[in-house]
Amino acid sequence: MTNKFFFLFLLATTFINAQHTITGKMQPKGDYEWMILYHMQGAKQNYIANTDIVEGKFSFTLADSLDVGIYRLVYDLQNQLFVDVIYNNEDISFLFNPRNPNQEITFSSSEENKLYYNYLNKTAIPQYQLDSLQVAYFSSTSSADKDKISSQYQQKQKNLTKIQQQFEAESKGKLAYPFIKASGRFNSEKPIEKPNDYLKSVKTHFFDYVNFNDKTLLNSTFITDKINDYIFFLNASEDIEVDNGLKKEAITKVIAKIGTNYSLAKDIEEVLLYNFTQQQNVTIVKFILDNYYSKLPTNYQDSDFRKDIEAKIKTAMGNKAPNISWTDNNLYNLSGFENYIVVFWSSSCGHCLKEIPLFYDFMKDNTKTKVIAIGLEEEVSKPVWEKLILNYPSFINVYGANKWKNKYAREYGIHATPTYFVLDADKKIIAKPDVLEDLKTFYKQKE
C-alpha cells in the first residue's frame, strides 16, 4: 500500500513539474484589466486561455500537452496591443512597457526569448548606423568625405555581419534560430552610389534569408508581416497608378517566392484581399482574385470568402450601387433627388429599433434625399416589420426575405444592421457612414 501511494505521489510530482508558466509585469501598470493567450498558427490565433491583470501583473499556468511555438498575449484588442513570445517547454517571465511592448521588454526567464530579444537589441543600433551612413553617402559631394564615410560603412557592415553570424551560431537547434536567421538583412559590402540602385538592391534581397517552408516561421506572423512590409511600405508611391503598378509587381514576386505552398499562398492572398478591400482598392483586389486566388487548387479556395470580397468591392466608394428592385420600381429608375440612402435594418435588431426612428426623424424633412430601407427579415418576423414600417411612410420600404441570405444583403456585403450607403444622383456610392452620427456629420458638411 505504501509503495502504491509513493508511486501516485511520484506521478503527481512529475505532472506538476512538467507544467510551465508565463508570467508578466507591466511597467507602468496602466489600466488594463485582462490578458488573452493565443497560440499562433500563421495569421490565425487559436484561443488558449485568459486571466485577470492585477496591478499590472498576470500569470498563466500552461498544460504540459501544450505545443511549442509562438504565443501571443493580447491585453488591448481595440488598439491591437500584444506581446509575442517563443514557448519551448520552459517558464517565461518578463517585464515590459504596455505602451511600447516591442521596444521596452526584458525577460528574466526563458533562454529562447532572452536570446531572440537580445539579438534584436544588439542588431538594431548597428543597422540604424549603417543605414545612416548610406544616406550620408548619397548626400556627400566631396570625394574625401565619401572615402571617410565608405571606410566607416565597411567597418560597420563587417561588425554587423559578425553579430548576425554569432547569434545564428548560438541559436542553432533553438526555436529562436529561424527568426534570427530570417531577420538578417542584406547590406552591401560598400555604400551604393545612387538612391535608386539602393532601393533596387533592398527589394532584390528583401527575402534572401526567409525560408518560406520553415514550419516555425509559418506558425507565426513573421512571414505575413514581412510580406506586408514589402508590399505596402517598400513598394509605394503617392501617384495612384504608379502605386498600383508597384503593388502588382510586388505581389507577383511574393507569390513566386511562395511557390507551391498552397496553404501559405491561400493565407497570404486572403490577408492581402482583406487589406486591399479595406482600402477599397478595387484594381488590386481584382488583380489578386483573377490572377492568383481563382487559380489556387479548388480545395484551397473559400467560396464564401470570395463572395464576400466581391460584394465589398461592388460597394467600394465611387462604384455604382447594385440595383434594388421592389414591387413597381427599382433604384436605377428613381430620379429627381440629389442623394439616395440605402439602409439595411431588421425588426429583430435591438439597435435598429432604437436607431431607425431617430434616422427617420432626421431624414423626414429632407426633400433632396430619398431613402430605400430594406428590412432583412425571416418569415416569422415579417408581420412585425410590416407593422413597424407604418411609422416610416416617406421611406421606400423593401421586404428583404431570408435575412442574411437575401439577394441584396449578399450583393451589398451586409453582415450587421443598420448599415447605410449614401449615393449621389447617379447612384454612385459617395459615403458609407458607420453610425447615424456619421451620417449626420456627412450632411452637415454638405451644407
Give a description of the structure.
The chain is of the alpha+beta class and about 450 residues long. The protein has three domains: about 20-110, Immunoglobulin-like (Sandwich); about 115-315, no CATH class; about 325-445, Glutaredoxin (3-Layer(aba) Sandwich). The protein is about 45% helix and about 20% strand. The protein is built from 15 helices and 15 strands. The protein has helices spanning about 1-20, 110-140, 145-170, 175-185, 195-205, 215-220, 220-235, 240-260, 260-280, 280-290, 305-315, 350-365, 380-390, 405-410, 435-445; strands at about 20-25, 35-40, 45-50, 55-60, 70-75, 80-85, 90-95, 105-110, 325, 330, 340-345, 370-375, 395-400, 420-425, 430. The strands form four sheets. Strands 13-12-11-14-15 form a five-stranded mixed β-sheet. A four-stranded mixed β-sheet has the order 4-1-7-8, with helices on one face. It has a four-stranded antiparallel β-sheet with strand order 3-2-5-6, with no helix packed on it. Helix 3 runs antiparallel to helix 4 and helix 9 (about 260-280) runs parallel beside helix 11 (about 305-315). The radius of gyration is 28 Å and the shape is globular.
In total, how many beta strands?
Answer: 15
SS-based structural class?
Answer: alpha+beta
**Number of separate structural domains:** 3
Main sheet makeup: 5 strands, mixed
Along the chain, the helix and strand elements come as HEEEEEEEEHHHHHHHHHHEEEHEHEHEEH
Q: Biggest sheet, strands in spatial order?
A: 13-12-11-14-15
Output mean pLDDT. Answer: 93
Number of helices: 15
Shape designation = globular
Taking pLDDT < 50 over at least 5 consecutive residues as the criterion, the unreliable ranges are 4-16
Assembly level: single chain
Please indicate the percent range of residues in DSSP E strands (runs of 2 or more).
15-25%
Helix percentage:
40-55%
Protein name: TlpA family protein disulfide reductase
Organism: Aureibaculum marinum
InterPro entries: DUF4369, Redoxin, Thioredoxin-like_sf
Domain DUF4369: 21-116
